[in-house]
Amino acid sequence: MDFPHRRASGRILVAYVATDYGKDALNLGIALAKERDVSLDIVMIAPRSNSFSGVYPHDRGYSSILEEHIATWLEEALASIPKDIDATARIVLGDSEAEALNDAAVELNCDMIVVGARKGGILSRFHMGAAVNALLHSATVPIALAPKGYAYPGPISRLTCMFGPRAGSVDVISNAIDRASKRGVELRLVSLVIHGESDLQGLGNDVPNAIRQYADRVLGDIAQHMLDDGKASTVVASGNSVEDAVSDLAWDPGEIVIVGSSRLAVPGRLFIGTTASRMLRSVPVPMVVIPNGYMRGGETDG
């Protein structure tokens, strides 16, 4: 059955900095690449006023102390990656860190950008810095968010798709189905039901039917086939708030949760909504946010 899907390139951009949260992002990149035909592009951003850029390490001299420091950090990052994972380190110039990361991901044809959490996050899970916040409101590729202290070595063991009747269901469900099938891991389909919010009331316990209503018929039929074949499971997460609804969900250490963009997202871009932001503060595993229309391969609007 045909459904909206976008061919994966097998390249992941890791937004690296020589800090604890940079290492969290690197660890998530490694987990995503483990036992997969996936390569990592480890990227550090330097101000455009500098003259150096490109792939590291190289055999020419360093033009500044800053370049030498960044090159050393990238070499240390490369040294920490398992030998069975292909990785390249590079410096990218840009005045805006978020814009430079997104442009690099597009130029390198990466499937996502992986970022880490700064210290001081709510419940010690995730606190957004300025660059991450900007990416979550403008990126044209999916953003994977590593929680503070992430150290799971991989491979990824399960994908959880969180969806409801709001915008973005087609993208998040089709992405989750496609990636779970390619990875050969279980897919958990979670229908989010918030009491008192008319557009998050859900359709009872029939998750495939909820997918047909919120996304499209074909995706609902595929979900039903995956359930019948034992390749997927379903959960209705309900509560008086997002935090309450997800509090009873059990999580695997190697799990990734996938969510969609807000209804405010313009075509081709990511915009994290209130619901996803609340989940980010409540879910203990990495989260991937999908841009509006991403799986349909639409052009960026603006």
SSE layout and pairings?
Layout: E1 11-15, H1 20-33, E2 39-46, E3 54-56, H2 65-79, E4 87-93, H3 97-107, E5 112-116, H4 130-135, E6 143-146, E7 158-163, H5 169-183, E8 186-194, H6 207-214, H7 217-228, E9 232-239, H8 242-246, E10 255-260, H9 274-282, E11 287-290
Helix pairs in contact: 6-7
Would you write up a description of this structure?
Helix 6 runs antiparallel to helix 7 (217-228). An 11-stranded mixed beta sheet has the order 3-4-2-1-5-6-11-10-7-8-9. It has 9 helices and 11 strands. It is an alpha/beta fold and 302 residues long. The chain folds into 2 domains: 7-48 and 65-148, HUPs (Rossmann fold); 155-296, HUPs (Rossmann fold). The chain is globular. The model is unreliable at 120-124 and 298-302 (pLDDT under 50). The chain has helices spanning 20-33, 65-79, 97-107, 130-135, 169-183, 207-214, 217-228, 242-246, 274-282, and strands at residues 11-15, 39-46, 54-56, 87-93, 112-116, 143-146, 158-163, 186-194, 232-239, 255-260, 287-290. Pfam families: Usp (PF00582).
